[in-house]
Design brief:
Number of domains: 2
Number of helices: 2
Order of helices and strands: HEEEEEEEEEH
Distance between the termini: 103 Å
CATH topology of the largest domain: Immunoglobulin-like
CATH class of the largest domain: Mainly Beta
Length: about 170
């Protein structure tokens, strides 16, 4: 009788280990970070840069609209400096309060304060463009941001207005 009980327990353990064995040694895919959309992401100190992309007009693309979400996971307000292209000058400074999720570039037609428009933009859709994010004395992050156009319906409202040169 004891042999049967021992055999039953051993068989139950073998079945349990055999059916769940992969879970013991395989890495969990849900613990790995990935960019779930068309943009790219990075981090600077306590500020997360999420889903950064530039939207431009495919035909007359002379302006780029930087679309990005900044998330401050820290306890202090941060003044994030965003530099486009070669990074020689700051395109914008954005204040992000503790715990705040700040979306930029959502309303290029009305020119709200949360828009970062890049003038004299010549990179075509499908290309990549360098954008540098930093604040304070933190080491910044340089992201190679994809350039998209408004052909997809979800990006159509994000295409910036074309800036025409002033009449001479």
């Amino acid at each position: 009788m004891k042999a049967r009980v021992a055999t039953s327990v051993a068989l139950a353990l073998a079945v349990a280990l055999g059916t769940a064995g992969c879970g013991f040694v395989a890495p969990q895919a849900t613990t790995k970070h990935y960019d779930a959309s068309d943009g790219v992401s990075g981090s600077v100190g306590t500020v997360d840069v999420r889903n950064a992309m530039i939207i431009t007009d495919a035909k007359n693309g002379t302006v780029g609209n930087l679309v990005v979400t900044l998330v401050n996971t820290g306890n202090a307000t941060q003044q994030v400096s965003i530099s486009a292209g070669d990074g020689s000058s700051s395109a914008a400074r954005v204040t992000v309060k503790p715990g705040q999720v700040k979306q930029l570039g959502q309303d290029p037609e009305n020119g709200s304060a949360s828009d970062i428009l890049i003038p004299e933009f010549t990179t075509k859709p499908g290309g990549l463009y360098s954008v540098y994010f930093r604040y304070g004395d933190q080491t910044g992050v340089n992201l190679t941001v994809p350039v998209l156009d408004g052909q997809l319906p979800e990006y159509a409202s994000l295409v910036p207005p074309t800036i025409l040169p002033a009449a001479q």
